[in-house]
Every structure is written in structure tokens, then in C-alpha cells.
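Re: the 347-residue chain
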Amino acid sequence: MAVSQRPVLGRTYLIMIEVLYDARWIGPHGIGRFADELLRRLPSLTSFNAARRPWHPLDPVLLSTWLWFERPRLFFSPGYNSPFPYSGAFVFTLHDLNHLRVPANSSPAKRAYYEHIIRPACHRAAFVLTVSEYSQCEITTWAKVNQEKIVNVGNGVGLPFTPAGRKHDPGYPYLLYVGSRKPNKNLPRLLKAYSMSGVRKDIRLVLSGHPDHQMSGEIERLDLNGDVVFANSSANEDLSDVYRGAVAFVFPSLYEGFGLPPLEAMACGVPVLTSNVCSMPEVVADAGLLVDPHDVEAIADGIRRLVQDLTLRDELREKGLLRARLFSWDKTASRTWQVLQSAAAMA
């Protein structure tokens, strides 16, 4: 087996040059951020790319066929796709069970994919990576595998998400939400809570991205036109500016395997309101204001407290900055590399 020595994460490791990496996951989303940050820090990975997306329903079979011809020492995916049928060594990443646990994000086809592709892959893979203790326990129970096989490598945060830098200044104070429009993000309750909070005359709500038909209809129904603003910040540098300019960050999600936006907000020095369920308490701990995401009044009360209580905001800001320092992409990459080395040694 060919080996070489190369500096990784400031140290020199004995590495296998045949670790094939599914770089198709890189993109402007949670898994995409994870995939990109790992590739930046692990230069020994060999990128695999194809025209089809990794979540294509035929990808497991097509990927397996390609791997049979290429025969890499180890295949590694930063996402939930896995080769099938394939008996070679591979590691893949299951960030959460969102497609099973959130009915509105599920479908018979997705449930079948998890049952017939992902669950068997959890048994065949050398290791399965995930990003939180919450997801590790949930996946272990669902897949019925030993917990040692499901490895929590965590998520991280780094530049440009720091308290130093430009602050977005649209000419009015604002609360900020960053994320998708998926049902688990709980945006209808957030909009209703903002409407009930009594702060709308003084402070606006900024949502990342563009409005869609459903969101526009909800804003119209709650008579929030002019109070809810959309900010499309595709570049991380622009997004960090928007974080830093916010009075507070609000993220009452119903389900997360980790929850990167609250961590990014804390790293930017912004007080955070988020949910008291799933992985959010694990990420935020006592550095954020935790609320029941099903209780609109609890969300509204949290918004009022953050807007009206300057002392609370200062306290959460300081705690958030300290908390964010516990998470780094270097740590995630180092943990991942240790797993890949173990998997390659087993191949």
C-alpha cells in the first residue's frame, strides 16, 4: 500500500493516499459547509465528482458500480449517500434522521431509502460519522448498531464568523433568522410569535433568503408587511455582517441534528434564542435563551426579553462567545481524520 507523509492540521501524519472523497456535497447548506471545511483541512483526500447529485435515487447503485472499477482503499462521503451493493471499505456521514423524524419532510420514498439503503449501510460501513451526541444516540437506536460504530465528530465555526468585522446596518434594528424554509424550521410559529411580542413597532425581523409564496401568504395574513424583511446573503462574508448587525438571533427549530446557525451567531457575538429540544441545548447550553418551540407565547416572551433586557443580551453575548470557542473545524477535521485512518487500517 502506498503511503506518504504530509502536514495536516499543523502536524505530520502517516497517511494513505487512496481516500476517495465525495465532494459533490459541497454547497450553501449545512452538509455543504461540513463537506467544504473538511476538504480544506484534509488535503490528502482525493475528490470524487459526478454530474448527478449525491441524493439522486440511483446514486447508491451507480456509485457502487464506479467504485468496483476504481477500487479505492477507502471511500468517504460527508453526506448520507452510501454505495450499494458494495463490499469495499467506506465511511459515510448521517447528520440526523430529519427525513424520518419530521413527517412534513418525509415521504414513502425517503422512508424506503432509509430502511433499505441507509440502515444496511450503517452495518456495512467501517464507521458512520455524525455531528452531535443527540444524533449519535438517535442513529444508534434506530440502526441497531453498537454505539462505537457511530462516531460524533461534531461541527465547527471559524472565519469569517467572529465578533470583529463589519456590521450590516439597514437603518433599523432587527432580529435575525438564518436557515431554510423547511417545516422543521418552525417559521410560521416564529412569525406569529414576533407578531404577538409587541416589539414590531421598534424592531424588524430579517429572514435569510428570498420569500416564497407560502411565506409571503403567512406574512400577509399576520399583517407583517414591512416588518419582515428578506436578506439574501449567499457569501459567508456577507452573512457574518448580517449576523453581527442583529440585536438578537432567533432560531426556534423543531428538529436539528446539530444547528449551525445558532453557533455562528454566538461566534459573531450575537445573543441567541433557540429551542430546548434535540441537539440545540447540547450546542448552546446556558449561552442562549432556550424556549419550547411548540409554544408560540414562550417564543414571543423570549423575543420580548431579548429586545427589552439589555443586561440579558450582554450576558448571553459573553457566554455565547465563550461557548463558540469550544467548536472549531480543525477539531472536526482532526476527529474525522482519526476515524478515516482507523477505517483504512481495517480495510
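The two ends are 11 Å apart (CA to CA).
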